Amino acid sequence: MVGGAGPAGGARAILHVDMDAFFASVEVREQPQLRGLPVLVGGAGRRGVVAAASYEARKFGCRSAQPMAVALRLCPQAVVVPPRHALYAEVSRSVFAVFERFSPLVEGLSIDEAFIDLAGTERLWGPPRGVAEALRVAVHQEVGLTCSVGLASVKFLAKIASGMHKPDGLTEIPAGTELEFLTPLPIGELWGVGPRTQEKLQRRGVHTVGDLRRLGEAALVEMFGAHGQHMYRLSLGLDERAVVPDRAAKSLGHEDTYAVDVVGVPALRRCLLSQATRVADRLVAQGLRARCVSLKIRDGDFVTETRQITLPRATDDYREIHGAACRLLEAVDTDGRGFRLTGVSVSQFEAPEREVQLDLLGPASEPPPRSAALQAVLSAVRERHGHQALFPAEAGSERRPGTTGAITHSRPNEPAKRRR
Ligand code: TTP
Ligand code: MG
Ligand code: MG
Fold it and tell me: Cα dist. 207→48, 158, 181, 412 in Å?
């Protein structure tokens, strides 16, 4: 069986590791004079957005996805540092290399976080809690950064746990205590329980995970269909999703869940642009191009549609990926509908080298695709001026506040799974 069944199944030990104030901490490591100061990484311009805030800045209420102007009103003495994405990608690779020494089962969720399944590592490394401690020490000694770790029997509990004692914390939910841990938690802590679902549940008097469990499976299914059943299982601490190692990943993507539903094609296109850019950056960082682009979109009633398109040639160019996603969006009926989630993912990877070889074999081969050179320049500019620097003016540049992002991976023959 893949992955085990959760607390009842016994022995799984899963870590969720998330770096503390990642971009800001990297900048403090690079510029030690910033240590102890409120630091904001992000675009300083009129429309700049905070990508990361150091914990010193958070005391003033500063946080990711806030307009920079707002953050600076809260904390005028903050030091603003422009983002250097290539540096963060490099540091991320070092951090992941440490993770992979502890277990081959490492699944990246974003640039600064991963699930690590400790299955089978006990003989080599000892009990899971000790492994979690050793991993934290190794990351700190070798990369010079702190992280927070959650340890639990299933993925979603490990993820909740890692956020509980940030920064520099380790939180364990020992096997057998899952229900006790979950009972008092607010329902918003569960994966997939967004503001709209929360509101609906609160009207039924459901505020905590314990309340949700008491409401029962049948009532939840009646209210939310399959999603209700999923929530019920989570309320019991059951989450059978396996940790899928990145080496097996056959697609990568980025999706966002919005606090307020997104309405209208122009706004949706802006969301897709931000996602296409993140996907292209990851392709460039991994030296890959992809031929297939997928759009995932979920409306306020949880109706989810996915569509995909195959491009004439593999790309790592955010404009081509965005263009394809917008073509897919044209096939979605957007009239009178608000959308709570959008996502862009790519698959059918090719390494650029292979493409060049094919070009050499071809007759009177055309010059190397102009977009490849252009994409490298664009990545360099983004590195200097931040992620948002090159968004076309008409598309706007601000990430919507109150959103959560996720990198997605999926395996061949398996539909892209929703992750948070
Ligand atoms: P997070 O792990 O969400 O945040 P963080 O590492 O800054 O802080 P925490 O200690 O709470 O984990 O995101 C990782 C990095 O991703 C973050 O440092 C910057 C980037 N990011 C953005 O660029 N925009 C965003 O809206 C968010 C949430 C993160
Ligand atoms: Mg983090
Ligand atoms: Mg993170």
Answer: 36, 22, 15, 39
Same domain, 161 and 290: no
Per-residue pLDDT of the chain (420 residues; tens, 9 = 90+): 333 334 434 468 999 999 999 999 999 999 999 999 999 999 988 789 999 999 999 999 999 999 999 999 999 999 999 999 989 999 998 999 999 889 888 999 889 999 999 987 887 788 999 999 999 999 999 999 999 999 999 999 999 999 999 999 999 999 999 999 999 999 999 988 989 999 999 999 999 999 999 999 999 999 999 899 999 999 999 998 888 777 656 788 999 989 899 999 999 999 999 999 999 988 887 777 899 999 999 999 889 999 999 999 999 999 999 999 999 999 999 999 999 999 999 988 776 543 333 333 333 333 444 455 555 555 555 555 554 444 443 333 333 333 444 545 444 333 333 333
**Residue 298 sits in the same domain as residue 185:** no
Surrounding residues of ion ligand 3, Cβ less than 5 A: 18, 110, 112-113
Show which of 172, 191, 217 is a domain's final residue: 172
Which among 49, 54, 112 is the best mutation to test ligand 1's pocket, defined by most ligand atoms within 8 Å of the CB?
Answer: 112
How much distance in Å is there from the Cα of 235 to the middle of ligand 1? 27
- For the CA of 403, the closest atom of ligand 1 is 26
CA of 88 to the centre of ligand 1 (A): 11
- Separation of 195 CA from ligand 1 center, angstroms? 21
The answer on 143 and 114 residing in a single domain is yes
Closest by alpha carbon to 24, among 67, 78, 96, 100?
A: 78
Pair 91, 191 in one domain = no
Q: Which domain holds residue 337?
A: 249-410
- Ligand 1 binding pocket includes 88 (Cβ within 6 Å): no
Atom of ligand 1 nearest to the CA of 55: 10
* pTM (2 d.p.): 0.65
Contacts 24+ apart (CB under 8 A), 5-10: 5/238, 5/240, 6/153, 6/154, 6/178, 6/236, 6/237, 6/238, 6/239, 6/240, 7/153, 7/154, 7/175, 7/176, 7/178, 7/179, 7/237, 7/238, 8/238, 10/153, 10/175
